[in-house]
Amino acid sequence: MIASNPKNALALALYEGPGAQPFAPDQRVSLLSTLLGKGYRVSVTGENTGDGGLRGGEVTCDQPNLLVLGRFGAVPEPRQDASGIAVRFADVDGQTAEAVLEKVKAVETEVGGTAPGTWKPWFPVIDYDRCTNCMQCLSFCLFDVYGVDKGGKLAVSNPSNCKTNCPACSRVCPEVAIVFPKYKSGPINGEPVNSDDIRREHMKVDISALLGGDIYQALRDRSIKAKSRFSKERDSDRALAERLRCLEKLKEALDIPDELLQSLPDQDAISAKKMIAMRRAGLTA
Amino acid sequence: MSESPTILYCHCAHSQVVPDATKRPVLEALARSGKAFEAVADLCELSARKDPSLPRLLGRPGTQIIACHRRAVSWLMHAAGTELPKDTVVHNMRESKPDDIVSKVFNPALNVDTPAAVGIDPAAEAAAAPAAPALVAPDTLLTKAMP
Fold first, then answer.
1. Among A70, A112, A152, B34, which is least packed by CB within 10 angstroms?
2. Between A56 and A15, whose confidence is greater?
3. Whole-angstrom Cα distance, residue A247 to residue A258?
4. What whole-number distance in Å separates Cα of residue A193 and Cα of residue B45?
């Protein structure tokens, strides 16, 4: 899994509790838009109206460093909270969002924090309500994104290996059980799965069965036939054009990146991958 | 410690899949409300990093998440080692209109699966909710610092 860096992480809070003036709504909007857009996470304490429905000054913090942004007037001294959190304060009264952002970056540098955004926003998650542990995704993925856990259950073991914008494994899943939350359309993006989706996936399985249950073998057979035909016709340019045309169609149909198509494995490689994953998990293949 | 329900807003900052025309008005309405809420750049990031704050954020009864499809949010949380409670309301910015989302956030009774609607007593749930790992109260700190 992608590693966090809790040692240096910095939490931000827009503070409007006792000792600080509330933000003007426009400034609150502008600060939030800018900080979130740059990948920061912000706790908004809310105005301290004393109606009991608002937190009015509390900030729950799970990070070792907290930067409290507020309209303080006199900026409080940094201090160590009883729980060990290093709390810093910054007066942002009348400042533009850009100026505040620079201030935040400076504190981040000071505490040795990791800049936000240093992670890969494209990875699959498994819908275990639907997954049947068939391992087709594990076998199919060329980049070892999938593995199995100690219980032999499919797991996303190396999400950072996933190729950005490639949803190919979710397309081979017969149960519509792989979700890419940032994919453009459903059900891959996590939309509820409907009966049409399930029918479509079962059609894929049926086609695979019609091809003899081994789509890779079918492709290899087709390739051998094509080679034979092309060797008679002796037109390598036409052969290449045909191959490119087919690849282009496949790429468009499945929304698969170029680099993936250029390195399709054979059946032996797929079986070997499955055995390796099982051995890694201490299971007999 | 306050037991106010948490509003968790995801800005989906690393992708264009949530329309700007939805997330901007929603964020603006939250910011202008003067209410407390948690805003994260990207919920996927919290999942990818197995963020330790997720159990706390999801542990409060009546939590509302403003993000995308519930199935995606639920399994993202599972991937992070945290289960999405059944009574957590997920507002979907990929499909719902910003006005609808905002009105439901501020009028939880409009949500069909709020704790009250599904027969959960928020007070009892609050007692069972996990404690926050650390609670900083800047007001106390400020009181100490100020003359």
1. A112
2. A15
3. 9
4. 24
Task: State how far residue A87 is from chain B, nearest Cα, in angstroms.
Answer: 9
Within-domain flag for B2: no
Q: Which residues in chain A are contacts of B132 at CB distance < 8 A? A: 60, 62
Higher pLDDT, B137 or A260: A260
B134 domain-assigned: yes
Which SS3 state, helix, strand or coil, does residue A185 take? coil
Closest CA to A69 of A40, A44, A49: A44
H or E element that contains B78: helix B70-79
Instruction: Give the residue from A35, A82, A214 showing the smallest Cα distance to B27.
Output: A35
Question: Which residue range forms the structural domain that includes residue B49?
Answer: 7-145
B45 vs A119: CB contact, 8 Å cut-off? yes
Query: What is the bridge-based pairing of β-strands B7-10 and B64-67?
Result: parallel
Q: Residue A95 — pLDDT band, cuts 50, 70, 90? A: very high
Class of the CATH domain delimited by A120-210+265-285: alpha beta
Tens of pLDDT, residue by residue over B36-83, are 999 999 999 999 989 888 988 888 888 999 999 999 999 999 999 999
Q: Do the beta carbons of residue B143 and residue A79 sit within 8 Å?
A: no
> Residue A196's pLDDT is what?
79
> What's the pTM?
0.75
With beta carbons under 8 A apart, name residues in chain B contacting A126.
75, 79
Domain boundaries, chain A: 10-111, 120-210+265-285, 214-254
Kindly state whether residue B124 falls inside one of the protein's structural domains: yes
* Cβ neighbours of B70 in A, within 8 Å: 190
Q: Of A284, A277, A256, A267, which is closest to residue A144 (Cα–Cα)? A: A277
CA–CA separation, A221 and A218 (whole Å): 5
Interface pTM (ipTM) of the complex? 0.78
Q: Distance between CA atoms of A125 and B144, rounded to whole angstroms?
A: 46
Give helix then strand counts, H and E, for chain B: 7, 5
Number of domains in chain B: 1
Measured distance CA(B93)–CA(B91) in Å, rounded: 6
Distance of CA A188 to the CA centre of its chain: 13
- Could you tell me how many helices (H) and strands (E) chain A has, helices first? 9, 10
Q: What does the block give as tokens for B89?
A: 């309301």
Answer whether A123's CB lies under 8 Å from A159's CB: yes
